[in-house]
Amino acid sequence: MKTTPVSTMGLINATRESRMNLQFKIAEAQKEANSGRYADVGLSIGYLAERTLSLRNEMDRLKTFKDTNSVAASRLELSQVQLNAMADAASKFVQTLQAARASPSNSGVAVTDAKAKLTSLTASLNTAVNGAYIFSGVNTDVRPMTDYPGSATQTNLALTFDAMGAPENITAADMKAFLDGAFNDMFMDDSNWSDLSDASDRNITSRITNNERIATATNSNEEPFRLLTSAYAMIADLPLNELSEAAYITVIDTAMALVGQAEGGLTAIRASLGTSQERIKSANDRMDVQIGLLNEHIVAIEGVDPYEAQVKVNTLLTQLETAYALTAKLQNLSLLKYI
């Protein structure tokens, strides 16, 4: 028969190991209670860990799409703000032109307003966010619009108009031919417009989901911007107070027609960008649903019941307190008390 020696020190060491083991289990249990998932997922669910890894990768991919969509949505929102400002300015300019047509003495007001509107339009088209110009097409690092004052276009306009002779001798027919011909080409012909715009004709497109790619910007080469620039430049630079009444009316009417055409174009661009905004919102809503479903699957595999996890923590804490109490009693045992 084999006997095993028993000593107070041996019992104390045994309870110490028990306490260390309980402390480790408590740490794991508290982690599970706080996180809602197994402390050691791989050990707890085994081969299913590969499945949850795949689900998490898919969820991260969807979140990445949402992050990039947020950038695109911000660009679209800022574009809409600037487009709305341009449309509002154009509408007010038409009112100025109507007043100038009714009373040629108001031509000075129209000239001043045109110069201010032209400066504002250029500033709007040069809007940038974090160094990226939103109306530059794909050339986001390039300032799209050159300031009109002092530009090659302004110089060319002055030279071409001067070649027509004394302003007061220009007939309405001659003015109409000039405005529809040489003047129009300075802004509508691509080779001439490049004197004012460095934007790319290609707009930024964004992949908003796996299978959807949409345009999420416009550029300063679009027709409405050219029309507005030409209308403002027409009133700002032509010597309205020196023209015959018929030629003066021709200029005012042509400018109003250009602005009206530009307003229609701005509406179309705003509608197109608005459609892109709606598609981004719809894509994000669908991805939110997908992310929610993926998370539910992950929780079903990795998750622990929070109530059970807390009960486990409390049970282990009770056991640890008991172990400490037992150790204290063992430490008080001494043969000297019985001698």
From TrEMBL:
One of its GO terms (cellular component) is extracellular region. It holds the Pfam family Flagellin_N. Keywords: Bacterial flagellum, Cell projection, Cilium, Flagellum, Secreted. This is Flagellin. Residues 257-339 form the Flagellin C-terminal domain. GO terms for molecular function: structural molecule activity. InterPro entries: Flagellin, Flagellin_C, Flagellin_N. The lineage of its organism: Bacteria, Pseudomonadati, Pseudomonadota, Alphaproteobacteria, Hyphomicrobiales. NCBIfam families: PRK06008.1. Its main location: secreted. It is found in: Secreted; Bacterial flagellum. Residues 6-140 form the Flagellin N-terminal domain. Flagellin is the subunit protein which polymerizes to form the filaments of bacterial flagella. Belongs to the bacterial flagellin family. It comes from the Bacteria.
